[in-house]
Amino acid sequence: xxxxxxxxxxxxxxxxxxxxxxxxxxxxxxxxxxxxxxxxxxxxxxxxxxxxxxxxxxxxxxxxxxxxxxxxxxxxxxxxxxxxxxxxxxxxxxxxxxxxxxxxxxxxxxxxxxxxxxxxxxxxxxxxxxxxxxxxxxxxxxxxxxxxxxxxxxxxxxxxxxxxxxxxxxxxxxxxxxxxxxxxxxxxxxxxxxxxxxxxxxxxxxxxxxxxxxxxxxxxxxxxxxxxxxxxxxxxxxxxxxxxxxxxxxxxxxxxxxxxxxxxxxxxxxxxxxxxxxxxxxxxxxxxxxxxxxxxxxxxxxxxxxxxxxxxxxxxxxxxxxxxxxxxxxxxxxxxxxxxxxxxxxxxxxxxxxxxxxxxxxxxx
Length: 365
Prior knowledge:
This protein is mainly α. The chain has two domains: about 10-230, no CATH class; about 230-355, no CATH class. Helix content is about 60%, strand content about 0%. The protein starts with 10 loop residues before the first strand and ends in a 15-residue tail after the last helix. Strands 1-2 form a two-stranded parallel sheet.
């Protein structure tokens, strides 16, 4: 099974599902990282500025951030990995050109910064709302900060000068956009899963401030991977039907691809199921002890519901009333109907935990 964009080098994700580094990168890389973060912060402020959304300054901020992240990705390069021996763990990985293995911090920085740089470069031409752009940019800032932990030792393996070739700059066709924004989507899912898991651990330890902060981090990532999903679908329905959808079903691939088997999203869904199963206190009960924690948990659950609601929206735009590509029986219902059922099931699960839970009950025959 070949990749959808075979000209793009493989993206290697960490087998331990963590996109946070334990050590600081070499000084030149760290300097470039902080420069990129500063540029992204300026861009984020500009995107949310009620008077500056259409100004030349915003365009300049986007260009500056794009150049800064590209420079960071270039400085972070390590010796190319021989990924030919790495076997994709699911067909989705083969399709998107992804592999997983153990990564040291230097390679984690190298792989992650390339994903961010490519996504931001495409954002310059994407037709995405300002709020969705801001959500992606804020998550980029958060991910990059996690690659240069404060008060940590410096990584001796981090390159002081680029140790590999400059990252490949992909084209700007819709199929390439579909692939590179999914790479970012995968990174964000891993980051969100880690944040939720850390929040639960801190909650068990009675660390209210840490729990609140980890929940807020997770919410940032969820809102961003929702935006990345919308970003990936920035194309017309005929384009999706002609250029993208055929690449995800036979004969292009052995079996139709589904997000349900995507390991990175499965990691996030597992973390959220654990939260709903083990932290069953109502909003009022949590708020009685810590209002900030209650609001942070509520925001995460709300963001997760909005994510699947946006999935309905983009599926309606690109697929319409057709069945999902994984539905063998067209009479089983549309892809939208499947997603709405999933949304209502999730809302039922979250309702006892939320401040304003969804009162819709899923009726089954």
